[in-house]
What does this fold into?
Amino acid sequence: MSNTSNGNLVSKEDLISMFLGLAIVGIVMIVLVNYFKSRSGRIDLGGIVDVNDEQVSENDISGDNDVMFGDYVVETGDSLWNIAVRKYGDGYRWVEIADVNGISRNEASQIEVGQKLMLPDVNMNMAQLPTEHVVEVGESLSKLALSYYGDMFAWEKIYQANIENINSPNLIEIGMTLVIPE
It folds into this structure.
């Protein structure tokens, strides 16, 4: 028997269903908010993991494995990003480590424990950074920034260096020569 004889009252089953539905919606909203909150400002790239500044002290830079440049043996939990942070104090130097070791950007996550890497002398290696780039099919400023700096959000640096030749940062032309600032 239901309490809805005239349509104004709600049955106990309807009331319970409504509260359970609201609880489920609330839980889903909390999970979604936490998920997006933890992902904000983060881009996952192969071989790159998030390292907070608090996790790396001055003693960690060139600390374990005792070389600033030369040979380095990959340890558990290492990524090119972590190694660059520890050895040079700058995670974006992972690109230079990859280049010296013949590791493509796509293979950066495939380093293995025990693998021997050569660490470049970054002062000498900075001269090797290309100063110009000819745009090819499928490239964008963010893809170029990711390739050259390891950070797709550094596209504005390339845009500012080429602002007189680029009408819109969303539209770069194939064959266009862009200056890549250091």
In short: The chain is about 35% helix and 10% strand. Residues 41-67, 124-128 have pLDDT under 50 and may be disordered.
